[in-house]
Amino acid sequence: MLQVRGLAKRFEPATPLLESVDLDVAAGEWVAVVGESGSGKSTLLHLVAGLDRPDRGEVRLDGRALDFRDDDALALWRRSHVGFVFQAFHLLPYLSVADNVALPLALLGASRADRARRAAAALEAVGLALAAPRLPGSLSGGEMQRAAIARALVHAPRLVLADEPTGNLDAGNAATVLECLRDAVKRAGAAAVMVTHSPFAAARADRVLRLSAGMLQAA
After folding, report:
1. Would you say 162 and 192 are in contact if contact means Cβ atoms under 8 Å apart?
2. Which helix (H) or strand (E) holds 86?
3. In total, how many domains does the chain have?
4. What pLDDT, in 10s, does the model give residues 33-80?
5. Spatial distance between the Cα atoms of 103 and 67, rounded to a whole number of angstroms
6. Four-residue CA torsion sign, 120, 121, 123, 129
């Protein structure tokens, strides 16, 4: 489903951060990318999401290549096809949990009734049905991350990108969140890429790759 070929990016002329990255992720597959700090893991996610432009190489989802020249088209593509899970949750504090989860649907123009129905189903899937009317500030860190997973998957994206999704959690909450993420990806049949420093988190993925010297290799 996701194909990356020859992806390269440099920020200093003498030191390429990504030299030639190839990556294939199948539908329903969850791939973890590990590596040292500064190895380019987050940059790789940004390129795959079309948030940054590569110096060369291409990214394809379902056989369609991203057009890195058109920012408006990339923004529309992300809105429809990509779900993000971040370390810092990024839930809006003044909206209910249900309204936070429904935000991607609102951006896509879904009706209020459709937003409510799909947000409720997404929260049920991550065990947070009773939290729907609450504000994010009343949730634990693990609950906030599960809400963020529900938000990332509510619009049925084809690609899920997770950047250190357990970085702010203790071991017990991390295990619960990773299980929720895995189940959500499998149910949706999405292609998922997670970057992490955590061996514990990486071990939950279907496959682990290491980013080193600007290239991906089996860990």
Report:
1. yes
2. strand 82-86
3. 1
4. 998 888 889 999 999 999 999 999 999 999 999 888 888 999 999 999
5. 25
6. positive
Q: What are phi and psi of 164, to 5 degrees?
A: 50, 55
In sequence order, what are the beta bridge partners of 25?
2
Residue span of the structural domain in which 210 resides:
2-218
Backbone angles phi, psi at 188, to 5 degrees: -80, -15
The CATH number of residue 103's host domain is 3.40.50.300
Report strand pairing: 30-34 vs 56-61. unpaired
* Confidence band of 3 (pLDDT split at 50, 70, 90): very high
User: Could you tell me where the DSSP H helices lie in 64-166?
Assistant: 71-81, 97-107, 112-125, 141-153
Query: How many angstroms separate the Cα of 138 from the Cα of each of 32, 88, 94, 97?
Result: 31, 16, 11, 10
